[in-house]
Amino acid sequence: MKVITLCGSTKFKNTFREMEKKLTLEGHAVISLGFFEQSEGIEITPEQEAMFEKIHRRKIDIADEIYVIDVDRYIGKSTAAEIEYAQNQGKAVHYYSIEN
Question: What is the pLDDT, as a whole number, of residue 100?
């Protein structure tokens, strides 16, 4: 069992849910997003965005590895920063676009 944090654009809610299920059924502890502002049309303030970035980096710290939800190989600015952060922490990085 590994602890895996999912990273990616919040516009890919359905794919996040699909991978949460798949990885959990494989026996992993999956850490995901609390909500999907782009998919759900939720507006957040710049302060909230900064707070969520800190929270997600902490989720990466807790994980053994990250799994990037990069539908059609899309990786936005925030996700790219999360990948770089994870790599700097020595975490393995896996990609949806490569493994599916």
Answer: 76
Pairwise CA distance, residues 57 & 52, whole Å: 9
Taking the complete model, does pTM exceed 0.85, yes or no?
yes
Domain extents for the chain? 3-99
Closest of 48, 43, 38 to residue 10, by C-alpha: 38
Q: Which residue has 């900064």 as its token pair?
A: 50
Total length of the chain: 100
What is the fold of 3-99? Rossmann fold (3.40.50)
Residue with tokens 């502890």: 29
Nearest Cα neighbor of 8 from 61, 42, 56, 55 is 56
Give yes or no for a contact between 4 and 23, defined as CB atoms under 8 angstroms apart.
Answer: yes
CA-based nearest residue to 97, from 78, 83, 86, 87: 83
